[in-house]
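lol ok so funny story. i was supposed to be doing the assay writeup but got distracted and ended up predicting the structure for this chain instead. priorities right. anyway since i did it might as well share w the group, maybe its usefull for someone
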Amino acid sequence: MISVVIPTQNAQTTLPRCFDSLIGATVHGVVKEVIVADGGSNDDTLAISDAAGAHVVRGGKSRASRLAEGAKAARSDWILFLHPETALDPGWEVEAEAFISRVTLENLRAASFRFGLDEFDGPSRRAEAATALRCWLFKLPYGDQGLLIPKRLYNRLGGYRDVAMEDVDLVRRIGVRHLVMLRARAVNKTVARPSALLNLTLTALHALHVPPSLLARLG
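and the output, tada:
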């Protein structure tokens, strides 16, 4: 049903956690294959991927090129793009399967997950709230929220393009009417993120169709 595509570059510290969140879906037959699109890692990323039974393909230097190469190798009708630092909530596959069952060829849609962080401090909760507000107002998820999309729709839109903020670029082409926000979370390792004010500023600029290359400079 789903091919999971994970773009990697020296991801040995985060990849096992990402793989762990896919085990239940694999056991239940929802995930049919996991594809690691690697940009030339020189740590244990490839060994970890091999031990997990993932199919490894060679990608380019940019994350967009790795995502695109992973999609080319995907054999399922649905693709789940997932960053290596992201782990999905337990049971996510139940909601994903229910969503997929409601999508028709006449009305192809994609979906992303709610954003979460693995820390419990105030800044992490504020970052989650700002992201939730952005998604509620504009349906603008970023790549660290995952993207579940029919391969047919992905190909129709031209897939990932090698541009700055490739996630924003693809979401724009999907369009608000064809994007659903699921309830399950994509929980990320805590890293430095834009402030809530900058986050909302970027969102407003996105709504005005400012090019992704300019948004990347601000973010």
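The mean pLDDT is 90. The longest helix spans residues 122-138.
back to the writeup now i swear
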